[in-house]
Design a protein that fits this description.
19% strand; alpha+beta; 436 residues; 4-stranded parallel sheet
Length: 436
């Protein structure tokens, strides 16, 4: 059986957040395969722990992918500061892969940035790594690929829980576990009232709902007190973001000047997108297009803007409006990295200080103990593409690793497996609940 088929059967998706079905990449033919171990979200340290503890599985997954794609060579992107991880990975690499050492800046884990650093190639505007002969996978995805090769499906997610918790740590948890159970496993919170950033403070979303669950793409949970600067910024109606921007943006262009994609040579100019909020007569028809190439890293909103406005959210709004209007921006100018790009990188430590997170910037060591959960609620849509279709019924007994949701032939998606042994308590179009 091909590696691509095994990956599909195992339900492997991009574990770094995007959730793209990994079997598609394994079936492509490329020159280079890149492992992304950059991990640049503030306070998230799970990939670092994975690289230290499961080095052989990660490098084996990379080797399988290089072989499957007929790639000439591989590149393994790791931050230069992570000396122990570089040493561990280097000892397990074969002659086809070299380490690409990355700076400790945000967002060094952006795949456009990683491809450029490793190969010197610039992905076309609105393109994908495949357009320049590359495939990029997060290190946890590679770990799951190594398991898939042994016919072991994805039933657990490796996450980092940090911030205002008593035991910041990284550990495996069954897919579908509630945030409440996860936080309790990390010792509980230090704050009586708190909010959760799911996936990170920069690109994740804010929630106060402890009944939400871990999916195949959840990188971690950042717990912060209810009165923290970031909670206050994020926890307000969307219309407020745009109303404030409309009234206060003075077009200083700092958001554009520090935009990582702009510095790589892409025509994304958040300060011009801000004009589409309505403080110019021209409006959305002209300025929305500047949002097309935004990667939503959040640096403009949470670091660059001196007035604490919301350029990233304006770009998000513009992209929705463009899709609704059927508009597509085509960059005509050549993609060429800005000559001052290196000098405008944002050090992670500096970003953490700006975000008022320095009190929480601690290690999140690996916890090898198994979390015990009595129930899981497993979403059928944890990936890009079509949701899986339930193939089990209420009252049915299932074993951990059993297929419970599959993808129709010819559709893009990923299989879903039971993450615990137990009885099916509920089946809907959106999820399957299992109790042990």
């Amino acid at each position: 059986m091909s590696l691509s088929k095994k990956i599909f059967n195992a339900g492997v998706v991009g574990a770094g957040g995007a959730g793209f079905p990994a079997h598609v990449k394994a079936n492509s033919k490329v020159e280079f395969v890149l492992a992304n171990g950059a991990e640049c979200e503030p306070l998230i340290h799970k990939d670092y722990e994975l690289m230290l503890r499961f080095t052989q599985e990660i490098t084996k997954g990379l080797e399988h992918l290089i072989e499957s794609t007929k790639a000439k060579r591989g590149f393994f992107g790791i931050k230069e500061k992570n000396v122990k991880a570089i040493s561990a990975i280097s000892q397990c690499l074969n002659g086809k892969t070299e380490i690409t050492k990355l700076g400790d800046f945000y967002p060094s884990g952006d795949e456009f940035e990683l491809v450029y650093e490793a190969t010197g190639r610039l992905i076309p505007p609105a393109g994908i790594p495949l357009d320049v002969g590359c495939v990029v996978n997060n290190v946890e995805t590679l770990y799951n690929i190594a398991l898939a090769e042994k016919d072991i499906p994805v039933t657990k997610k490796f996450i980092c829980v940090a911030g205002a918790v008593k035991k910041p740590s990284s550990f495996f948890v069954p897919v579908g576990t509630s945030f409440k159970d996860v936080i309790e496993f990390a010792g509980g919170t230090k704050a009586k009232e708190f909010g959760l950033f799911v996936g990170g403070v920069m690109m994740g979303h804010l929630t106060f709902n402890l009944d939400e669950v871990i999916t195949k793409t959840t990188a971690g949970l950042i717990v912060l007190p209810i009165d923290h600067y970031l909670i206050r910024r994020k926890n307000q109606p969307e219309q407020n973001w745009h109303r404030i921007g409309k009234s206060a943006c003075d077009q200083c262009s700092y958001c554009t000047e520090l935009c990582p994609r702009y510095l790589l040579g892409y025509q994304v100019e958040p300060h011009k997108v801000m004009r589409s909020l309505g403080f110019t007569k021209t409006g959305a028809a002209v300025w929305n297009q500047m949002a097309e190439l935004c990667c939503s890293c959040g640096l403009c909103t949470l670091y660059a803007c001196p007035e604490d406005l919301y350029p990233k959210e304006a770009c998000d709004k513009a992209k929705v409006e463009m899709r609704e209007e059927g508009m597509k921006f085509i960059q005509k100018k050549e993609v060429k990295a800005h000559p001052i790009k290196e000098g405008r990188r944002v050090p992670l430590k500096q970003l953490i200080m700006k975000l008022k997170l320095q009190d929480y910037d601690v290690e999140a060591p690996f916890n090898s103990k198994s979390i015990s959960v009595g129930k899981v609620r497993t979403p059928l849509q944890q990936h890009i593409g079509k949701p899986a279709q339930a193939i089990v019924n209420k009252g049915e007994k299932v074993e951990e690793g059993q297929l419970i949701g599959n993808i129709p032939d010819g559709e893009l998606g990923a299989n879903i497996h039971a993450s615990i042994t137990g009885k099916v308590k509920e089946v809907t179009e959106r999820f399957i609940s299992i109790e042990s």
